[in-house]
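Entry type: protein chain
Record version: 2
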Amino acid sequence: MDNKLKIGAGLGIAALIVAGGSYCLLSCDKPTPEIALQSAEQSIANHNRAEFDRFVNLDSILNYSYDGIIDSFADADRNMPVEAKAAIKSFTQMFKDPMIASMKTAIDSYVETGRFNDNAGVVELFGRTGIDKIEYRGIEFVQIDPDNANEATASIRIYHPDFAQDLSMGLTLNKDRAENWQITRIINFQDFVNSVSNIRHVQLNKYLDESAEIISRHEMIIHEAEQKYASIMAMGTVGQEEVSTDLRALMIDVVQKDWEARKQELSNLTVPVMAQNLQEKRLMICDLEIGYAQDYVQWMDDKKEATIISAEDKKTQARTLSNEAAALAEHLAGQEGELP
């Protein structure tokens, strides 16, 4: 089984990806927490739902993790008043039972088939936590509580690409009535979600700053091109050879090339999840402006009404998208760590 086990089911992933011990552990007669961890992994590899349920108490895990997600989402917006956060947390408790049921359905589907049956956007919700990108790296320790022989604590090493380093995730295991150990809780789940939120906020700011510098620099070139366009048109009409030659050179060598360069520079940026929509709009604007320049040059050759209409339509779409992108960028810049 691939150690990455990229489980988009976020809330149950720690229970799904844990592994540990060696084959000899499975041959032991006495149940141990290590056997539960190893068996949980094997049940997923074998798509054995019955075995999975035997070693993973999904209801318990989801019950604890749901509250952690809601608290993390509310706490992520640092500009939100305390009273508003409390109201949101209270309100979302109304949806706890149906949401947990949907989460469980998605996870069960993965265990049985290796694919998620996304219900009510649950997979998207899990993606917001960052858990869907976790990679398993190994067990750090397993310890039975000296004061409670029916409870154990385990720590596993995980890797998340947003952090570029190994992290620790704690698990609680308890014995069930049949004396089997079950994974029952992700101990530091909320801390993990908060950490993902914080690092994504840093990544978002980096993208916004870098893209703003690119756009500002190229806008200066386009502004100069617009002034040049006005001065060329002041010399006569498009039908005149000198005017047509200058306009053609301006559109091809300056306007089109600059939008192509802008698109390439934006494409080279690392785009965080939160900014994907903004990036898509910006690249669409580049394509529309490039198309506008190309249509304009073609119109100077064929003088067809359909060609200039196509050019003007692309320019109108580009302006509309530019307004939307500017508003979206302003909105993202004002978010204090809101999860994607």
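Comment: The chain is about 65% helix and 10% strand.
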